[in-house]
């Protein structure tokens, strides 16, 4: 077992599109230590989204080995992969991906549903997590009653509620104005200071510059 | 994921699209309602017929010429009153044997007339069949032996000819021949599609003279005890065959009649229920269709649920429960609707209906099964969705 959150060794990912093999990742090696803060930058089509999906256990490499939390993704069944996502990884998306008919509290509690935790405890933990992201007063609001920044905070609370060791943020500030984006980044950084590894995918150099280190991608390869 | 939680999610999803959920249910509602109502009507009719056949009197044995097999041509009867006497000797009690010769005749009283079923009978008829008089008296043995022209009117005939007036002692003509009314029957209603209030009973001898024959159509025996009824039938048929070697005779019991009628009605009810079941099937296809639409609409939601740790099975179960919830809710609504329709028909029309628990339970079970069967494909599709593709969907 390694203490690293992610160890990728010569990982490739090739999609089949209409019978043509389209390589999205062409051999990526990368280590993210526990508690690290890494920004992945690159233009669209550089393979950074594909990498993000692989690091989040949503997809499997075509070749190479990928260890998440010390476990080889290729060896896991779909159910084990789901359990891995639930227990060790938190996702934050550009478009928030909140359930529209559901309150902030129940959105945050959603990952706990798949751990078989009862509603009362889910709500208690979700409320505590919303307080942690500064939304204690918005618990019963639905996404359409919240501002973009607030929605992203709800999404971050949802990512954190299971106590993951790795937070994957895909353009978390992409849909927000710059002031709100700054406060979201500040929140992510304070979480990182508490020991959660953060991998931030962005095309914004300024955002990337705040990370401890940067990985630059182009044409499915890490170039810097 | 806990089951209670899965139900809650399914309920939320259906509530979010109330109108669509209701319309989707409609097919199942109509199918279940039709099954429940039709089975109730079939059962009610069967029970009514059973009551009527049993109402004829118990331990009844009906003897007719001919073979009682499907497709057998009706045989003209060679039997006479002498045969009835022979049968009476076998039974050992004349009062347990009834005969009939029936003919449709026009019955007149003054200017009013009715087309009635004239039945030439013995005075024993009320002790063999259950017939009660409302007024007057029945035929006597002397009436029969002398061929006296007296008549007992069915309730319907009496009402047509005399209205509310007392018909006792009045003159009528049957087929142009004068008869005197000596009694009227209590109202009986329809039995097996025959209006039993449209009968006029006259002495068999008088009827034979009117019709110019010495034959009788058939006879009926009220057996002294149930255990010997089959043996009695065999004996009577043997004796009659001995007297008329060229003719086949059959003796049937109430149980046999009920059995045959029950089989016919059972098949009829089954066919009706199956036709109604087709609409359930169509409803199921509708459910399947809507669930596929729902899976497509909620692709992003599925992707997100998978990202935060839902297993393929969790997603499948959620959509399957949604389909089952749709069809079982439709099933309950359909049961209520079908039961109400059956009760309405029973109350407002001459068609009887009887609700049965098994038909309701069956309809509910089938609607749940329809949900499972037609929900499986959409649910599997949802469970297998690739989260990467699902999350990217806009």
From TrEMBL, chain A:
The keyword Transport applies. Keywords: ATP-binding, Nucleotide-binding, Transport. The keyword Iron-sulfur does not apply. This is Macrolide export ATP-binding/permease protein MacB. PANTHER family: ABC TRANSPORTER ABCH.1 (PTHR24220:SF86), IMPORT ATP-BINDING PROTEIN (PTHR24220). GO terms for cellular component: membrane protein complex; plasma membrane. Residues 6-223 form the ABC transporter domain.
């Amino acid at each position: 077992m390694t203490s690293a959150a992610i160890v990728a060794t010569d990982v490739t990912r090739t999609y089949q599109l209409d019978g043509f093999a389209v390589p999205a990742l062409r051999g990526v090696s990368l280590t993210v230590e526990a508690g690290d803060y890494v920004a992945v930058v690159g233009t669209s089509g550089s393979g950074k989204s594909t990498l993000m999906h692989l690091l989040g256990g949503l997809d499997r490499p075509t070749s190479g080995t990928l260890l998440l939390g010390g476990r080889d993704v290729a060896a896991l069944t779909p159910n084990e992969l789901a359990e891995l996502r639930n227990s060790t990884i938190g996702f934050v998306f550009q478009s928030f991906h909140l359930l529209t008919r559901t309150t902030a509290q129940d959105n945050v509690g959603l990952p706990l549903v798949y751990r078989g935790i009862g509603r009362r405890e889910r709500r208690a933990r979700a409320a505590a997590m919303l307080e942690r992201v500064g939304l204690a007063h918005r618990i019963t609001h639905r996404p359409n009653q919240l501002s973009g920044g607030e929605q992203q905070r709800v999404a971050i609370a949802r990512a954190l509620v299971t106590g993951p060791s790795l937070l994957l943020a895909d353009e978390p500030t992409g849909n927000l104005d710059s002031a709100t984006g700054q406060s979201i980044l500040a929140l992510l950084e304070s979480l990182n200071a508490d020991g959660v590894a953060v991998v931030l995918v962005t095309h914004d150099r300024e955002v990337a510059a705040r990370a401890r280190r940067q990985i630059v991608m182009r044409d499915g390869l890490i170039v810097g | 994921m806990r089951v209670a939680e899965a139900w809650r999610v399914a309920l939320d999803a259906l509530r979010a699209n109330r109108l669509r959920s209701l319309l989707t249910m409609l097919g199942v509602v109509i199918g279940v309602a039709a099954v429940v109502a039709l089975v109730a009507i079939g059962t009610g009719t069967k029970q009514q017929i059973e009551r009527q056949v049993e109402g004829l009197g118990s331990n009844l044995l009906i003897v007719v010429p001919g073979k009682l097999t499907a497709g057998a041509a009706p045989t003209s009867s060679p039997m006479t009153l002498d045969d009835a006497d022979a049968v009476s000797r076998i039974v050992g009690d004349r009062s347990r044997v009834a005969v009939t010769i029936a003919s449709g005749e026009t019955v007149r009283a003054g200017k009013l007339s009715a087309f009635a079923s004239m039945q030439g009978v013995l005075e024993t008829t009320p002790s063999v069949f259950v017939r009660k008089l409302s007024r007057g008296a029945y035929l006597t043995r002397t009436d029969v032996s002398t061929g006296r022209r007296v008549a007992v009117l069915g309730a319907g005939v009496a009402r047509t000819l005399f209205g509310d007036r007392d018909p006792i002692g009045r003159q009528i003509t049957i087929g142009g021949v004068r008869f005197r009314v000596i009694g009227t029957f209590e109202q009986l209603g329809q039995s097996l599609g025959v209006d039993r209030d449209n009968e006029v009973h006259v002495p068999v001898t008088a009827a034979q003279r009117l019709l110019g024959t010495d034959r009788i159509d058939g006879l009926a025996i009220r057996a002294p005890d149930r255990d010997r009824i089959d043996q009695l039938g065999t004996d009577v048929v043997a004796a009659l065959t001995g007297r008329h070697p060229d003719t086949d005779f059959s003796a049937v019991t109430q149980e046999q009649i009920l059995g045959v009628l029950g089989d016919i009605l059972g098949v009829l009810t089954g066919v009706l229920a199956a036709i109604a079941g087709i609409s359930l099937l169509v409803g199921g296809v509708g459910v399947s269709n809507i669930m596929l639409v729902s899976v497509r609409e909620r692709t992003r939601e599925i992707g997100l649920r998978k990202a935060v740790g839902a297993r393929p099975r969790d997603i499948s179960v959620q959509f399957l429960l949604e389909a089952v919830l749709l069809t079982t809710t439709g099933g309950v609504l359909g049961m209520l609707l079908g039961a109400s329709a059956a009760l309405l028909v029973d109350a407002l029309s001459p068609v009887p209906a009887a609700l049965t628990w098994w038909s309701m339970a069956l309809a509910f079970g089938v609607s749940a099964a329809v949900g499972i069967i037609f929900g499986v494909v959409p649910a599997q599709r949802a469970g297998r969705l690739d989260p990467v593709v699902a999350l990217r969907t806009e």
